[in-house]
Amino acid sequence: MRGFFKERGYEGAADLKKNEISQLPDQRVAKQFTYEATKIFDKPGTAKLKEAKTQNDAGNYLQSNSFGLAVIAAYTDMKGDTAQDRLLTEARSMVVRDYLVKNFRLEDAKIKTIGLGKSDRAPEGGSVQVLIYPEGATAAQSRGTTPSAEQ
After folding, report:
1. Is the dihedral of CA 93, 96, 98, 104 positive or negative?
2. Which one, of 38, 32, 51, lies nearest residue 131 by Cα?
3. Parallel, antiparallel, or unpaired for β 127-133 and 69-76?
4. What is the pTM of this model?
């Protein structure tokens, strides 16, 4: 098991839960950025970034605008093992969050993650969304609805 997590883009399973929320807030999303997993991750079954700068548009937006909460939500397509896909999406959301927090001036506590596992709406290979909620939104206001957004 030594090196197992590192090869996949994160150190260990405990890292995945540090900034995770259990449900998406029930408020309307103010801004949304969506990225196909095949374009930003190294291999299909990993959370290791290959093209991190793809997320710079989301980072620049977060850095330049006030917001209440940003949630990095990751999905996989319907293929594969459900438990492994849940873990993979948790890892992918954490890796994207870490990139944004390390490369942009952001309030760390306002950036949360959620791995949502399989979705029939995800493109092949999955996707990652940066969901930005307006000021006043908090993770405590969660009820588990799906995101609706204005682009």
Report:
1. negative
2. 32
3. antiparallel
4. 0.81
